[in-house]
Amino acid sequence: MSYASIYRDDLFQDRSIIVTGGGSGIGRCTAHELASLGAHVTIVGRSLETLRKVRAEIIEDGGQCDAEVADVRDEDSVKNVITKVLESKGQIHGLFNNAGGQFVAPLSQTSKNGFVSVLTSGLVSGFLMSREVYNQCMAKHGGSIVNMAASISNGLPNSAPMAAARAGTINLTKSMAIEWAPAGVRVNAISPGIIESSGLDSYDSGSEAEKEIQKTFRRVRKCLPVRRLGLEAEVSSAVSFLLSDAAAYITGANLKVDGAAGLGVRWYKPEEVENSPVYSGFHRAVKPKVMRDEEAI
Description:
- By secondary structure, the chain is of the alpha/beta class.
- The chain is built from 7 helices and 9 strands, in the order βαβαβαβαβαββαβαβ.
- The strands form 2 sheets. A 7-stranded parallel sheet has the order 3-2-1-4-5-6-9, with helices on both faces. Strands 7-8 form a two-stranded parallel sheet.
- β7 (about 195), α6 and β8 form a beta-alpha-beta unit.
- α1 crosses α7.
- The longest helix has 30 residues, at about 110-140.
- The chain is globular.
């Protein structure tokens, strides 16, 4: 069984694309889809064991993949990994800045170090990766960058540092798009809502805030217009489109993949949905543990 992408098999043939945070969740799924479409994918992260596992999956499925350990929050580490990829591949055609970090806590209990740590993981890391890819390659050859943001237009209680980082990413994306357009570099953002990925299982420390957010994950689908959460493949397909030539006239955009969650209003109760289409192209997707319990809370 292979990835069931809607795109043609050779869409990214002979192209080199980097995916940060490629060892799990949306990053893992996107790496699989890009590789299934002919790309030579380089997944970047901090855990060699996790990256090797995903690399083995992709190769087993017939794709091409390298795994590079790097801390995308560290400037020297970022410079080194971009140089290494270029030495190996000659060019970098695409970059998906998927890596990020977060924790659940009220703002009143969030330390400065905690706040800055999330901003560094979710905002500064994308800046560093994009700048180095641009300076070392795309300024001469062009390319496409997609930055991971989030559907946070109305704020995100108990995860405010992450919301701030992603809001900054959306604005940074617009600045990059303007400055780098003359070099033929397109920069866009992707803003998922709540997605059924392994990231949901990271909220398992046992804190009261995380227990509450796990309950929210299980009940929030009843509050969405489409009455379900999103799947990893539904984000990956959007990222693949933005990286492709079909999006050649799209730059500086923020594409929401959130089931209209950002359009909701408190007084409106969504109707029952009998036919909400689902795109589940990722053949290796695993339902997060927190979502396996469908009991209403």
